[in-house]
Fold this protein.
Amino acid sequence: MIEQTFILSPEQAKEMEQTYRVVRRSVDARQRKLHVLLSLLCDEHGKLVARDAAIPLYDPPCFKDVHQTTQGEVMIVGMGPAGLFAALRLLEAGYKPILIERGKAISNRKQDIARLNRNEGMDTESNYCFGEGGAGTFSDGKLFSRSKKRGQMQRVMEWFHYFGADDTVLYETHAHIGSDRLPAIIRSMRERIIDCGGEVHFSTILDGALWNELNKKRVPTILAIGHSAHDTYRMLNREGVQMSAKGTAMGVRVEHPQQLIDRLMYHLRDASEEEVERMAELVGHASYSLVTQVKKSPSDAATRGVYSFCMCPGGHIVPAGTEQNGCVVNGMSNSQRNSPYANSGIVVSLQPSDYAPYAKEGALSGLYFQEELEHSAASHGRLPNVAPAQRLTDFVNGKSSADLPSCSYLPGIVPSRLDAWLPEPIGSSLRQGFRDFGRKYAGYLSSEAVVVGVESRSSSPVRIERDSETMQSVSHPWLYPAGEGAGYAGGITSSALDGIRAAEAIISSR
Ligand SMILES: Cc1cc2nc3c(=O)[nH]c(=O)nc-3n(C[C@H](O)[C@H](O)[C@H](O)COP(=O)(O)OP(=O)(O)OC[C@H]3O[C@@H](n4cnc5c(N)ncnc54)[C@H](O)[C@@H]3O)c2cc1C
């Protein structure tokens, strides 16, 4: 089969998309006039294939029955994208995965998340980060990665589709599932793992006692704990698992009215509300990706990066911490992306040298830096989960906000001088970064926008050292650190890919 690519107006693209089989789709909003790049499938005569033609979208995966397998068992700690995709890959190869997950199954987890959103407190084992599906379940569900391994990426998309995601995940350059759809997909992955003979144990934590047991048995174990399990990092550090401090990025989440972002990104500054809405209906609400380099200090030529992270059009800001006394925010959206808000993390890149005040903590110094920031945010908000916030213009100009604009963050926000208490280098870098973004997009620096603190968990500040080929921990060869918590992946797709790689490393070692 061949494909043909068209550069189309949003209206033309919509029509073609409804008629023909799409292979790839992306929106190009760089010019004043928006274009959609659409690649369509053709048959051997060069004729476009109808959308509902009886041609399979891909070869369905084949997960083996492992009830009686002789291939062996593999332990998997953590049921986020890394753990789940590792389990599915092991099933393909006939191995029995045994998954343990500290959090609860999705149906119970949903109730804990509802309580969190009502500001009724946090269950430290069941929240936006811990529980079935990991941090990926109630996330925005954006499925893109910088990985160059197209074949492997395609496999991740196909498996998401196979377990219930829309066709768009197979062809959108910026594919997106949404928090309303992800839970059902994750649940059907779990049901398949169990049907095939794998095991799933909720409310089961890898603690010191279980660690000792595993260390004696040396069963191959994929460690896919995500980046929020601070207690587990501490336990592994005590047990001598080799780790190092790693660079990450921390900052705030900023929220604008979605209409404002649509106007800026789609070059519709003076258009009527109806025109803006119509464009959003045709191509979806606008997102943005911003990056700048700011000076480390006025007298220093060295720079550091400030960039947008996990931008959620039509989304919500959510409480994404795991501690009672810490305040952490992140963003999510539903499949329709239909809230009136556009939020994004704006983060400052940090190196291990920035964790210097905690240098005595060695590999965990970044964790201490992060915790200090989260506790500070909680002390400027209101427990349990009301977050500190400031109008964006006040943040940049160093003024307090007498009041705050409406915000999607359900537990609530209170005015706070984030510009004054955010530690260096975060506060000053963010101010410079926001000014740069305002110069690039006039209107971005708006008093209708609000900055909410803190976005502290964009990636892990710890790396669990592993051999690059065998993927085994350099100190404990039976252990395969994988996914975001190991420090080798970031985001749903790359964590899923890393889980698959860990499974393949075990398969090829047998
Ligand atoms: C609100 C929110 C929105 C996000 N939106 C996006 C997005 O749109 N796109 C994107 O690509 N990424 C997004 N992310 C990030 C993404 O969810 C993570 O990068 C991804 O889930 C990491 O996968 P993982 O499997 O490595 O770890 P996780 O998903 O964090 O899973 C780790 C699991 O291990 C469990 N665990 C931890 N310690 C133990 C232990 N000791 N014993 C047993 N179990 C343990 C945890 O409970 C958890 O379920 C978002 C994250 C959040 C919080």
User: Anything to note?
Assistant: The chain has a mean pLDDT of 96. The longest strand covers residues 248-257. DSSP finds 14 helices and 19 strands in the chain.
